[in-house]
Amino acid sequence: MVGRLPIVLGVFALAFAQTDHKSVPVAPDQPSKPAAARPAAPQPVAGHAVIPPKPIQVQVNEVIVPVTVTDDKGRFVSDLDLKDFKILDEGRAQKVQYFSREHNQPVVVGFLIDLSNATRLHWKTYQEAAIELVLTLLPGDKKYSGYLVTYGNEAELAANTTTDSEKIVEKLRKVKPGGGAALYDAIYLACQRRNIVDGEPYDPRRVLIVIGDGHDTASKKSLEEVLELAQRNLVTIYGMSTVAFGFNAEGEKNLTRLAEETGGRVEYPLQKLYANVAGYLSTPSDDGNYALAVGSGGYAAEISRGIFSAVANISGEVTTQYILRYTPEVDGKSEAKTFRNIKVEVALQNVKIRARKGYYPQTP
Questions:
Q1: Could you give the residue ranges of the DSSP H alpha helices within 88-176?
Q2: pLDDT at 305
Q3: Strands 322-326 and 340-346
Q4: Which of 8, 155, 236, 248 is spaced 20 to 30 A from 284 at the CA atom?
Q5: Is 282 exposed, middle or buried (0-12, 13-18, 19+ CB in 10 A)?
């Protein structure tokens, strides 16, 4: 036995030397999976010990682009294929590595509810609309999650991330409007201080729905700060404006900007209140001017119709978008840019395309 000791040691030394210098095979990344900085898993070599390699940080920026396509009547165009799309990153065409047009796509939805004095006029109706949105987008399936942020003088995480819609609905039934509006702080809170679902922001995706008029009177954060934060966190923002018919809000353009630059849009359910009333304001004495008197049943019904139509439009769009992902191929000049512009094109006439305007490359 003693005589065999050098032989045994020699075998171990040879095994160690072979393992130390042998290249370790690495499975190629699958294009349908989100790219991330990760070391290759060590693979066993027959008859030899495995020595884990040192972690190697590789930075690959995969860009996710949710896209909505509607026709000239606002109806979803849902039968497009990959060949119908073209993505330009800083003007250069990109190769799309992942494409999806599945309905009922997994999402994490943040419901941001304006509790300022500006929402008092139609509060009950908007409260019901918010509840309807929650129940529609959180049907009890674990692939759909949501959370509630309310904002008045301060932003508050009223209900953390959950798949249980009742937890959010219970909070919504108890809140009441009053005070200022800290919208930007609410967006910051939604991006930074709630429980994250495994797989974000690729599967499920991140969405914010703001029910308010876009004005801000109390935030510590600025519009530019939270817009960049939303873009960096791959958040798509939608809005349901609470601006009443015949009124304007100074924050309307800000809500529109937040939505359009992140690939969402804003619904204005009260702005078309009299759209179907013949003669409204066309002739001062026309009966149409009094067809929907404030406080009447017809007035209340028309408001409800407009709001719940907006609920259907937003909930439908959130779960039926096309999803495209690609790894940017850009020139040296574009590579150094802090913000890169995106343009999505579709090989169809008379359609409207909504997609994020650009992105911030990840920091190595």
A1: 123-137, 165-174
A2: 72
A3: unpaired
A4: 248
A5: exposed
CB 64 within 8 A of CB 323: yes
Q: Are residues 71 and 199 in the same domain?
A: no
Closest to 52 (Cα-Cα) out of 17, 12, 19, 29: 19
Task: List pLDDT tens digits, range 191-249.
Answer: 999 999 999 988 899 999 999 989 999 999 999 999 999 999 999 999 988 876 445 56
5 lies in a domain?
no
Q: What is the pLDDT of residue 362?
A: 67
Looking at the fold, whether 87 and 158 belong to one and the same domain comes out as no
pLDDT at 271: 61
CA-based torsion, 78, 83, 84, 85: positive or negative: positive
Q: 211 with 126: CB under 8 angstroms?
A: yes
111 has which bridge partners? 148, 209
In the predicted model, what is the mean pLDDT of residues 28-41?
42
Judge whether 75 lies within some domain: yes
Task: Please check whether residues 222 and 234 belong to one and the same domain.
Answer: yes
**What residues contact 331, with CB distance under 8 A and at least 6 apart?**
90, 92
Please list, in sequence order, all residues whose beta carbon lies within 8 angstroms of the beta carbon of residue 337, skipping any fewer than 6 positions away.
90, 361
- Cβ-contact 215, 179 below 8 angstroms: no
